[in-house]
Design goal:
Layout: H1 3-7, E1 13-27, E2 31-37, E3 45-50, H2 56-60, E4 67-76, E5 84-95, H3 110-115, H4 124-146, E6 150-151, E7 157-158, E8 170-171, E9 181-182, E10 185-186, E11 197-199, H5 204-214, E12 216-224, E13 237-246, H6 250-271, H7 273-282, H8 287-296, E14 300-303, H9 304-312, H10 330-340, E15 345-351, E16 367-375, E17 379-386, H11 391-400, H12 409-416, E18 422-428, H13 429-437
Parallel strand pairs: 3-5, 6-12, 14-15
Antiparallel strand pairs: 1-2, 1-4, 2-3, 4-5, 7-11, 8-11, 9-10, 12-13, 13-18, 15-16, 16-17, 17-18
Bound molecules: 4-amino-1,4-dioxobutan-2-aminium adenosine-5'-monophosphate (4AD) and magnesium ion.
Length: 457
């Protein structure tokens, strides 16, 4: 049985078997007390092993970190702190752990635990984090599927640069020590696909094709960006959820993004209590208030132009002075969410020159129907837009930006045959986890983080 079901028992149980890893062992005169954790929940089960057990010799070999199998009876615990304990009748060491096991009973720093990323899920904090991550992924699927969204598995390898930012990891099967050349450049016609390929930065372009046929779709998968920004909020490989709705404008998009985040906040508060509680106690004391604030208040919706005005009148000494036409910096995002409005803010209608080519042009000719959802402490958690559905406008925009429309022929086709207004966004899964747990470094919410210079595991 798993420890979580044992601990939820309503009556004593005879003859049960559990397997897990030893957190601690304490020896008294006639008994040993073993705290066993099998990863099914935060709590350990306390095992009482009689020194006269048949194989009591085994007991001596059981140290912190060992994998063991215990058979015994679940009985009410006379001790403090737990309702049930397991009176062992037999013990078996499945895998011993020598004394240099790195996770001895003391608190380790996040930095140290990153250096043993293969073992950190055996700690309370990372066990809780990755159970929560899994449940949250499930909740995201539930939220979208119950609203009629279909999960589309968009490709990881693409020939397009969706965001136009050029921060791409190239994919090649060429022999890098002997690259074929043509007129002084790499000859990709001799590469695997006969053209340049890269890891996707977003599944959006492909998912739009399915949006304009199934109506409501989403992607949920890994994306890759070779941005060399070594911040606590950027990873080179991260997961993104990208819903896309047909016959929907920017307002519908804002409604969906807000409903989704509030649903997920309520989900963790209700369904992940024990694990969430760890973060409230040991990681971020302000977390309960942060989550209540998100769940209980409507998000502010603010045009970019007004956001810049507020920032300019703030009387703050920003490192980057806010100005119309410039991107909002994280200090600006934090000012808006943490000091000015004290809640999440959706900024919309950004200058077209700082946003991607596919965003729908507004009538003013200088802004696009873009939106970013900003959250306290995190900053941008969602980026999205209404998409340009007008063939001529899109083709013109591609030309303005120096792209060759021929490279986007199929994307343009979607505007030629049965085009329709449609909108979508990308929710950064790791940023969401940071928001919901108070963990302040993205490296600590993804199992094996990929950041510049780091590829150990
Ligand atoms: O704002 P972004 O770049 O939007 C897109 O990629 C659109 N194609 C999405 C869409 O409309 N379908 O990225 C979306 C979100 C960001 O708001 C952020 O939460 C997250 O993805 N993100 C990152 N998370 C971790 N590390 C990085 N390097 C990230 N870059 C973006
Ligand atoms: Mg963005």
């Amino acid at each position: 049985m798993r420890v979580n079901s044992l601990l939820n028992a309503t009556a004593p149980v005879q003859e049960v078997e559990v397997s897990g890893w030893v957190r601690t062992k304490r020896d008294a005169k006639d008994f040993s007390f073993i705290e066993l954790n099998d990863g099914s929940c935060l709590a350990n089960i306390q095992v009482i092993a009689d020194a006269n057990l048949e194989n009591s010799e085994t007991l001596r070999h059981i140290g912190t970190g060992a994998a063991v199998k215990v058979r015994g009876d679940l009985v009410e615990s006379p001790g403090q702190g737990q309702r049930w304990e397991l009176r062992a009748t037999a013990l078996e060491v499945i895998g011993a752990a020598p004394e240099d096991y790195p996770l001895q009973k003391k608190r380790h720093s996040d930095e140290f635990l990153r250096s043993i990323a293969h073992l950190r899920p055996r700690t309370n904090k990372y066990g809780a984090l990755f159970r929560l991550r899994s449940q949250l992924a499930h909740a995201i699927h539930t939220f979208l599927q119950t609203r009629g969204f279909n999960w589309i598995h968009t490709p990881i390898i693409t020939g397009a640069d969706c965001e136009g930012a050029g921060e791409l990891f190239k994919v090649t099967a060429l022999d890098l020590d002997n690259v074929p050349q043509q007129a002084g450049k790499t000859d990709f016609s001799r590469d695997f696909f006969g053209k340049e390929a890269n890891l996707t930065v977003s599944g959006q372009l492909e998912v739009e094709a399915y949006c304009l046929s199934l109506g409501r779709v989403y992607t949920f998968g890994p994306t890759f960006r070779a941005e060399n920004s070594n911040t606590s909020r950027h990873a080179a490989e991260f997961w993104m959820i990208e819903p896309e709705m047909a016959f929907a404008d920017l307002n519908d998009n804002m409604d969906l993004s807000e409903a989704m985040i509030r649903y997920l906040v309520n989900f963790v508060r209700e369904e992940c209590r024990a694990d969430l509680n760890l973060f409230c106690r040991f990681v971020d004391k302000a977390l309960p208030a942060t989550l209540d604030n998100i769940a209980d208040n409507d998000f502010v919706r603010l045009p970019y132009t007004e956001a810049v005005e507020i920032l300019q009148q703030a009387g703050c000494n920003f490192e980057f002075p806010p100005a119309w036409g410039k991107d909002l910096q994280s200090e600006h995002e934090r000012f808006l969410t943490e000091q000015h409005f004290k809640r999440p803010v959706i900024v919309y209608d950004y200058p077209k020159d700082i946003k991607a080519f596919y965003m729908r042009g507004n009538d003013d000719g200088r802004t696009v129907a873009a939106m970013d959802v900003l959250a306290p402490a995190i900053g941008e958690i969602i980026g999205g837009s209404q998409r340009e559905e007008r063939y001529d406008y899109l083709e013109q925009r591609l030309r303005e930006l120096g792209f060759d429309p021929a490279d986007y022929w199929w994307y343009l086709d979607l505007r030629k045959y049965g085009s329709a207004p449609h909108s979508g966004f990308g929710l950064g899964f790791e940023r969401l986890l940071m928001l919901l747990t108070g963990v302040s470094n993205i490296r600590d919410v993804i199992p094996f983080p990929r950041t510049p210079g780091n590829l150990e595991f």
